[in-house]
Amino acid sequence: MTHQRIAVVPGDGIGGEVIASARAVLDAVCAGHGIQLSYNEFDWSCQRHEREGAMMPADAIDTLCGFDAILLGAVGWPGVPDHVSLWGLLIPIRRAFRQYVNPRPIRVFDGVKTPLPADKNADFVVVRENVEGEYSEIGGRMNRGFPDEIAVQESVFTRVGVTRIADYAFDLAQTRRGYVTSATKSNGIVHTLPFWDEVVAERATRYPDVRFDSEHIDALAAKFVLQPERFDVVVGSNLFGDILSDLAAAVAGSIGIAPSANLDPTRQFPSMFEPVHGSAPDIAGKGIANPVGAIWSAAMMLEHLGHAAASADVLTAMETTLANPDTRTADLGGTASTAQVTDALVGHLH
Length: 350
Known about the structure:
globular; 5-stranded mixed beta sheet; alpha/beta; Isopropylmalate Dehydrogenase
């Protein structure tokens, strides 16, 4: 089998720790399935920004073009403003490679304590539009330092962008329980979100086998907590999808287990896989970071690369270790270290 090339960007804080865990799990499962992956690691990070004035080199996008996928740990560190780190690495990669789909699966695992009552469960996917919407470069600031200083930020919603993310959500729902919920706020935001509603509703008519409804974001956030079992696929704009998926991860027990993918469904460009959690400077270097989010993201990468059976094996190993309090990290009520969780997962895969 031809080997597939993976660009690895550990990033900042606990990023290096959880990526090391993901690499160990990938090595174990790939050995069992005869999969050949090769890795090139890049030190692009806030530390690089402090040394050289940029999160990544000017030719970074050209460099990444030659890889089959990108595995990212985390980005962000005190001293580098978040908008600098985000716009210096993550967003340029997402946009240069047209990674317009950001699926974030949410699931309650056996043995994981959640804020939910015993009779509630959650197993759904937030599908976030990943390259336009509220995360726009259009806007600016005027009169800096004066009492009448202003800041203007423009949201951008295109028919192409809304159509393709809606179609992805409906296609995904056809492989699951056949239900799509669209996040909106068209009662208060009078141009972009009524447009979003219209386009998503138009696409829904092409999927008569998929149940569809639309919910205002404030009510939807409440229902994520009160009625999480009702959802299957939730599609939202860049901002709404980002917020909802973090809320959903907390409802499911911990943001430490939440994965994500940044997908170019056309496969013209490499896709990128990263845990939802941040760089967590407060616990970096302590060996207690939860590696499951990065490992689940790596499993999503395997599936994207055509290795569904290997991906499923990683999920099964995750289920087993999460069910055991001895192999859960502190954020899940356990006492295991990052290394102990990793070793347990690797042991299940040998």
